[in-house]
Amino acid sequence: MEMKMAVGAANWLVGKVLTKLSDELVSAYMDSSELGSNFLNAKHQLQYTQGLLSASVGRDVSDDPGLHGLLGELSNKADEAEDVLDELHYFMIQAL
């Protein structure tokens, strides 16, 4: 049950970051900067990760120690990404 909750939480967090990446203001800024290709690559990787997490729902992954470690790393990275996107959004609004 703990692993199922971790997968669900990771899926939710990745979805939240993807929603922020899909924001029109963020997308326009990224397209106009030199970050365009990195932005698209990061977004693609998050979509791929979200697909893998969604595919694992309903499967018994409780005995997969590798997945447990990766979920911890993913959670930390998604938190960091959300913080960076919040800061970016703040600075973009200040620049207007």
TrEMBL record:
Taxonomy, superkingdom: Eukaryota
Q: How is this protein named in the record?
A: Rx N-terminal domain-containing protein
Q: What organism does the record attribute this protein to?
A: Triticum turgidum subsp. durum
Phylogenetic placement of the source organism: Eukaryota, Viridiplantae, Streptophyta, Embryophyta, Tracheophyta
